[in-house]
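Hi all, long-time lurker, first post. I run a small reading group and we've been trying to get comfortable going from sequence to structure in the token notation. Rather than ask abstract questions, I figured I'd post a concrete chain and ask someone more experienced to write out its structure so we can walk through it together at our next meeting. Sequence below, copied exactly:
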Amino acid sequence: MRIGLLTEGGYPYVSGDARLWCDRLVRGLGQHEFDIYALSRSERQEVEGWLELPPQVSRVRTAPLWTAEDDGVTLGRRARRRFGECYEELAAVLCEGDGQASTEGAPCERGASSADVADRFANALYGLAELARDEGGLVAALRSESAVRALERACRAPGALRTARGARVPELLTVAAQLERALRPLSLDWYEDDALGSVDLCHATAGGTAALPGLLARHFAGVPLLVTEYGVQLRTHYLASADAPPAVRALLSAFHGRLAAEIYRRATLITPGNSHTRRWQERCGADRTKLRTVYPGMEASRFAEVGEAPDGADPDTLVWVGRVEPAKDLISLLHAFAEIRKDEPKARLRIVGAPAGAEGAAYLGHCRALAAQLFPDEAEGVHAVGDNPVSFEEIGGPEAPTLAEAYAAGTVIVLSSVVEGFPLSLVEAMFCGRATVSTDVGAVVEVIGGTGLVVPPRNPRALAEACVSLLRDPERRERLGAAARARALELFTVEQNIAAFHSIYLEIVSHSPVRRVVLDEAGDPLPFAAPAEAHVLGRWTGPMTRVVARGGPTWATGAPVRATPPTALPLPTTEAAR
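-- Answer (accepted) --
Happy to help. Here is the structure in token form:
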């Protein structure tokens, strides 16, 4: 079958989100054909280039989200009126305050009133999409003064949210600019019959803007949509707007909440990466019957040597691996290690990871200063050289040349995060057969499943007690490590991930109509003329049909495809039969 893979800020670029699992998925499903539709997030990402693509990728189309040149489209009077009606309706929905609020302030799609608001949002969104298709783009219109004025009228209207009524002009300009960025996929030419209109299904590798092209392909061409979320895009938007003015935060949260609800409502199936993500999706209106949990697939072979020989670790060493940033809460880990050293003076802590951006670099400097303050250089004698029990390293250095060797250095792996989605470093530690101590955040408990110790976040004393208990009990460490490795090999490998998506692809296509129309000699549609094999990639000896345009009576557009009468095959001779 032919898959339209939709990405944002990742595959096929060499940097960004979800590039590794997308590459593994495409390479693992060589029997299918993939068209890649990618939205890039930065000029740097485009300059860095693409990964090497396998032969089953037949087409790649990209578009930038970080910039949008003026499309040169000037709307006529009727088009301006259509744009004004649709945009004002969209703004009015965002400014209304009905619906039950979620924990982050976004509306949940519940009740008749909320269903009505969801329909109004959808009508406005698809109205803008149809206008963009008819006129060749809406970039200039979405940036225009009329868009800002429509947003202002909606904020000042009776019944608008209190925070929206207080929006000032600079805040309205900010909201309008963010809406224009989020709606840029509406102006793309990806929805014609020779693009997304010709695929068997669209697979969005994230929610939000990444799934918007799939939503439009479903609207214009009836293509089924599969949405995979290993992190919650909606939650990411909430966190990103936490420091924004109240009016900006309220309006953008409303938009992303409504968009997420519409994507979940229209998707054929939704595949969350864990139960934490699944709860968010259900809270935002996803139908439980559409949900299929598919864990991320990770390459287990590179950890096999360490996992099969777990006795080579230093029995007094704790290891932390990950990106250095405030959400990882290394400050609590350092304070916990100070408590550990009181009970286990020989204990050592190795922190392995690179800082994430400028904020991560500043945080790493703060952690180094705290470690120097908590653990002054120690020496066994007067003439010995002191040595700090805490070390900061990066993968590729002399102490940790590879990721597997970093995990191999410790007998207990620690995760101290206060915010976490799917803990990849924890799965890697499980592949290595290591006992783990983790904080109860994100999908940690679901991943561990009883094969490690879990403590509350921001609790250095509890973290220290759990680590000490494992340092003092080698038999328990070995037992937990073996159980963790068995669980990881069963649930979190690339093979299980690929097998799950292959099954889901077949399930979706089997419930979707075949989009090929064949006519008989009289010019009427011929039922069952396209066999089930038409969905399987490859060449067939029978008569080939072609995809005709969609939207309305498909057999009325272009020349019909005539059915070829079956040809009688000669019976095999006796010699051939033998």
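A couple of things your group might point at:
The chain is about 45% helix and 10% strand.
Confidence is low (pLDDT under 50) at residues 98-107, 539-578.
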